[in-house]
Specification:
The protein is an alpha/beta fold. The chain has 3 domains: about 70 residues, Arc Repressor Mutant, subunit A; about 130 residues, ATPase, nucleotide binding domain (Nucleotidyltransferase, domain 5), CATH 3.30.420; about 160 residues, 2-Layer Sandwich (Nucleotidyltransferase, domain 5), CATH 3.30.420. Helices cover about 40% and strands about 20% of the residues. The protein has 12 helices and 16 strands. Strands 6-5-4-7-11 form a 5-stranded mixed sheet, with helices on both faces. A 5-stranded mixed sheet has the order 14-13-12-15-16, sandwiched between helices. A 3-stranded antiparallel sheet has the order 1-3-2. Helix 10 packs across helix 11. The mean pLDDT is about 90. The structure holds zinc ion. The site of zinc ion has 5 residues, from loops. The site of zinc ion (ZN) has 5 residues, from loops.
């Protein structure tokens, strides 16, 4: 079979992407890369030598753990290029730059109350990207693009933020076109914040121990993203993971989505505050740790409703972990252990294997870099012309 120029380029990019995927998790030797990718040793040598000549990866010394001849380890050159990110959150707007290892180089931000309309936000964030680049004395043409993180729902392909709960200022905002027009950057990607957290968690799981998990963000709405076999599960139109709209009470509270009894109507922090009449969640958690009965009951209520939604997700996707972000992340061990118990007792899957309920990886706690995950994913998958 004669390969077209397009196919040759695609295969070349796919092979480079395979190697990048290994190195994004941890440094590796050429032999290790060959073993893990299935590529021949000579192909790996050829591709990695080209990447070293381009400056994209580098040799970083030897693997002291190996027995016998110590192989040379390869790693990504973190400052070869950088990515910019815009994080749209219901309380604030953050703009950041990260290197190729998703490490934040610089960031700035403003409270959401500072802005009058969506155009104000787009103006501010576009200018802030270039201010950060210039202040950090980076070369503008080394920026691979801008990733925008927003709560869903959104039309990712059209680059439009639709109706994010708690963020009415951004309703029906043409985010991608707005940022492209203002910055002149050709690579601008809009992504759901839950998906971005899952992508970064997936990258940070060095060794890839957890390949099937759900990343859940609990705030005014509840968003989630599902990773199956190490890949984001997107569904037919990119709307997968709407765990907040799993009905946990038939005929329960009416929801804007058209359903009744939706999980987010019961277990968002606002809903729980309203039901129990408290102001400060941290205070409740601190009391629960001191065995205060009322505070413990509140956590049990949250664990019961969240657990109910999560059991459905775990059973449907045969997950091995659930990672919880957002409003309940203050001293989360007690609440997470209650949810863990609920899932262990009620999930069909839990009879076959363990399911971990966890807070995010320590390195992920600083969420600023998440928005760049989308653009970095595309860059390393060799799907961006830079
Ligand atoms: Zn709903």
């Amino acid at each position: 079979m004669k390969l077209s120029a397009y196919n040759v380029r695609t295969i070349k990019n796919d092979n480079r992407a395979l190697i990048f995927n290994i190195l994004r998790k941890a440094p590796a030797s050429r032999a290790d890369i060959a073993k893990r990718t299935g590529l021949s040793k000579s192909s790996v040598t050829m591709i990695t030598n080209t990447l070293i000549n381009e400056g994209q990866i580098k040799e970083i010394g030897t693997d002291e753990v190996s027995i016998g001849r110590k192989p040379i380890l390869l790693d990504i050159t973190e400052d070869f290029r950088f990515a910019a990110g815009i994080i749209l959150h219901r309380s604030d707007v953050t703009v950041c730059l990260t290197n190729l290892k998703s490490e934040v180089i610089a960031s700035t931000g403003r409270p959401i109350s500072h802005f009058r309309c969506a155009d104000d936000i787009l103006d501010y964030t576009s200018k802030a990207v270039y201010s950060l680049i210039d202040d950090a004395k980076l070369e503008r043409d080394k920026c691979i693009g801008i990733g925008i993180s927003s709560p869903g729902p959104l039309d990712r392909n059209a680059g439009i933020i639709l109706t994010p709960p708690g963020l009415p200022i951004l309703k029906n905002t043409f985010a991608v076109d707005g940022i492209k027009n203002r910055t002149g950057m050709k690579n601008v990607i809009l992504e759901n914040n839950a998906v971005l957290l899952a992508m970064r968690e997936n990258i940070l799981q060095s060794g890839g121990k957890i390949n099937n998990f759900m990343s859940v963000i609990i705030s005014q709405g509840i968003g989630s993203a599902i990773v199956t076999n190490g890949e984001i599960y997107r569904g037919a139109g990119g709307y997968s993971g709407e765990i907040g709209h799993i009905s946990v009470e038939v005929g329960g509270i009416k929801c804007d989505c058209g359903n009744t009894g939706c999980l987010e109507r019961y277990v968002s922090l606002d809903a729980v505050k309203q039901k129990f009449g408290f102001d400060d969640y941290r205070d409740i958690v601190n009391k629960a740790y001191l065995s205060d009965e009322y505070a413990t009951d509140i956590l049990r209520y949250i664990a019961c409703y969240l657990g109910c939604g999560l059991v459905t997700a775990v059973n449907l996707f045969d997950l091995d972990a659930v990672i919880l972000h957002g409003d309940y992340s203050y001293r989360p061990q007690l609440l997470n252990s209650m949810i863990q118990k609920y899932i262990n007792e009620k999930s069909f899957v839990a009879q076959a294997h363990s399911i971990i309920v966890a807070a995010p990886s320590e390195r992920l706690e600083k969420a600023e870099g998440n928005s760049t995950a989308a653009i970095l994913e595309h860059y390393f998958a060799q799907k961006l012309e830079v």
